[in-house]
Amino acid sequence: MKVIWINPQLETEASLDFPAADICAALARHSVRCEATEQIKPWGSVGEMLLACANEMEADLLVMGCYGHTRLRELVFGGASRHVLAHMSLPVLMSH
Amino acid sequence: MQRLLAPAVQLAETFQSHLIALSVVPPVSVISAGPPNGPPIVLDEHCKACRERNPALKSAFEAATRGRGLVGDWREDEADAFGIAARVLEYARACDLVIASQKDAAWPWVDLLDVPERLAIESGRPVLLVPHTASVPARVGERYSSPGIVGARPLGQSTTRCLFSKAPKQ
Q1: CB contact under 8 A, B102 and A88
Q2: pTM attached to this predicted model
Q3: Does A40 or B17 have the greater pLDDT score?
Q4: Domain A2-95 sits in which CATH superfamily?
Q5: Quick one: angle between helices B157-166 and A19-28, nearest 10?
Q6: CB contact under 8 A, B105 and A6
Q7: CATH number, domain B2-166
Q8: ipTM strictly over 0.90?
């Protein structure tokens, strides 16, 4: 299992907190082997990058929380959830 | 149908679950395009087409679940004026996991009938969305030797809950 944290900030402003590591630590307590990685978002949308990462690592399931923004904001400005829903090429497990 | 059935049956068998298949007939369309003060036009051909398709869908579901050691339950319902999504949501809220198909972008009414998006937002249940074009692995983690799951942002409570529900039990 790979946990990906897509950092929306610029590389030079990379934050010190690393949420993916917290998730990995919690999963490890349940004997689940996982690996946390951080992706700085240099291009495109977050959704685009997620699908690219999943495709690159030949993942067979994408697990994601969805609609962190309001539905209206996603509708107007776009968002990771809408992008993944529209363009996914692998099964996606979503939870709001 | 088969793209949805395969992972659904596999999951239900693995977790010895009760698998419910739901077919919802859309509501009739009422158009007031007739003469002034005339009766509205009621279109129900699409409803009839859905009802006629149900026996074949039910047969496919029963064939897929027969002898698999799980309880399969076929249900048919009719949507009211609130639409298909509202009816599907009523059933979804009573389930542990909802399995749905990605919306078909080629379908002309795709923006009007956005069941997957409403399920993800309004059901309050985890939703497994099956893509239209790609094949689904028979069992997560077996298709490749490489890691099978990507956890994605936002890395909040919902993602964590999702990850734990999908993590292999060891």
Answers
A1: yes
A2: 0.77
A3: B17
A4: HUPs (3.40.50.620)
A5: 30
A6: no
A7: 3.40.50.620
A8: no
